[in-house]
Amino acid sequence: MNVRDIGEFGLIARFTSRVAKGAGVEVGIGDDAAATKPAEGALLLSTSDMLVEGIHFDLDTCDPVTLGRKSLSVNLSDIAAMGGEPRHFLLSMAIPPSVSVEFLDDFMYGMLGRAEQFEVSLIGGDTCASSGGLVISITVIGEQFPEKIIRRSGARPGDIICVTGTLGDSALGLEMLKAGERGGPATQKHLDPFPRVREGMALADARIPSAMIDISDGLLADLGHILECSASGARVEWDKIPLSPFFLEKCGPFSDHTMSLALAGGEDYELLFTAPPSRKNEIFQLFASLDTPVAVVGEVTAGSKLSLLAADGGEYDIVKRGFNHFS
Amino acid sequence: MNVRDIGEFGLIARFTSRVAKGAGVEVGIGDDAAATKPAEGALLLSTSDMLVEGIHFDLDTCDPVTLGRKSLSVNLSDIAAMGGEPRHFLLSMAIPPSVSVEFLDDFMYGMLGRAEQFEVSLIGGDTCASSGGLVISITVIGEQFPEKIIRRSGARPGDIICVTGTLGDSALGLEMLKAGERGGPATQKHLDPFPRVREGMALADARIPSAMIDISDGLLADLGHILECSASGARVEWDKIPLSPFFLEKCGPFSDHTMSLALAGGEDYELLFTAPPSRKNEIFQLFASLDTPVAVVGEVTAGSKLSLLAADGGEYDIVKRGFNHFS
After folding, report:
1. CA nearest neighbour of A123 among B73, B134, B82
2. Which of A235, B78, B281, B284 is 20 to 30 Å from A101 at the Cα level?
3. What tens digit of pLDDT does each residue of B239-263 get?
4. Domain B7-18+39-148 class?
5. Is A160-316 in CATH node 3.10.20.310?
């Protein structure tokens, strides 16, 4: 069945019938705007991310269920990076006439499933025809009390630099997909990242990070954003970068290619944060309780230089090696 | 100069430099999410609208300044239809490589100019490449106290039906643009609608409307939405529909074409509301003070039928005449 067969209102009705009215929703889908009740004293967090067919995804290499999940996940990751609690979201889509209703059903199944995992509810949006490919635009609205919000600008010299999970898997997964390989944890991580919302909120509640960002452009680029906003430099130690067994097996422990994927590949959707060194034990305890890996990969320094150090203390030339997206 | 020449971060920096930090903005553009402070006791209103090149606009017939204005205006109109005050917005764009930086400068000039008129501030969004045409996705966040929010569902039999401004001009303007004609109030209304935010808020403050919607799909279709949500019918009188002198001169006072443009043309972005008949004088006084035309075009009835009456009391066959988009 084609989208044209059921029309815009038919499609909206089809989607809406599956949407449970979430907490704090006074007016949901079906009016000119949604009305929601913010928690008293909290600030509103809002973020938008757009996913474009042919740029961010390829319908040949992704299935609609995981595409639906990922579209929401990358937005949730931005709220996580502020230490916020995601609450509601709006979904707008430009849909080419070739897309089937079954595709959209699966897409919504994936997206609403992820939404349920995080108790986030769909409150509105827009659907229209596309003259090009499929375009997905999501706005997530979250909240957090002002004193708990974690910005990019608070890193101070001497702070330790931490990352969750492992890096490079998503970029490796994308390479594998392009080469026609599917299955395995790397392609999985690329197609279906899991946003670190729980971790971001736990960090915010404990008021541990001095600065935080989610890694979407690669560790060096996103650390670069923190350093720029915090007017600081950093030393990152290559042999402390957390890599998965699968990644190491596929890429080997050391090569320009390995480093490029891990440090500049992007789409990791892990959290990168800085914290005073006095909080180090607390960080490890917190992440042990969450059952999420965390690693200290370096230190914030005075000045503005970002150095990448080898195990023997030597320094890699970031610019020469071509992973200086951060500059 | 091309978008590729300055890159995504260059483009964001270029836009951001022109954005004044608005009221209630704690964290603006440049972090993972924006943080804003909602008014105490108010509900949050949020709405998203997407505009797609080749579907909603054509770069041959619209200039970037008015396109920027319209993109924001159609979203503001949705907040107006709830009786809300728009506060902040997020802008996401998928941009084809052929689009010049100058085009985007003009687009932002138009959009930020309109934003300033309504004291609405840009707090975030996303820019990315497009594999097809230009896609603009906007989310506007507004607020209103719960007791003042106007929904679609409150119309009651006996209520009068009112519309602001005049109808059909935008649809006529679109026809003229397609025929290569430019200039004049109709094309102006189509390309550059002015959202009735002030009127919506004044109605909400006076708690006059029992139901309200903005006319984007045509009077009959949008009245149909109110009637469906309110489980009511309506009688609309054709000779009470407000038409502009220009529209009447171009289309003549009566024809199927005239009626179709005025009742089902769409993109009027006027407010359509219902109210108890006892509030009629107050409505006229309010709109006189706002210097905005308002007209009573019919009455809400029991049942579910939407009738369109001629001056002699006869009834037009809405279905047969093909303007039954509302069904």
Report:
1. B82
2. B78
3. 999 999 999 999 887 788 899 999 9
4. alpha beta
5. no
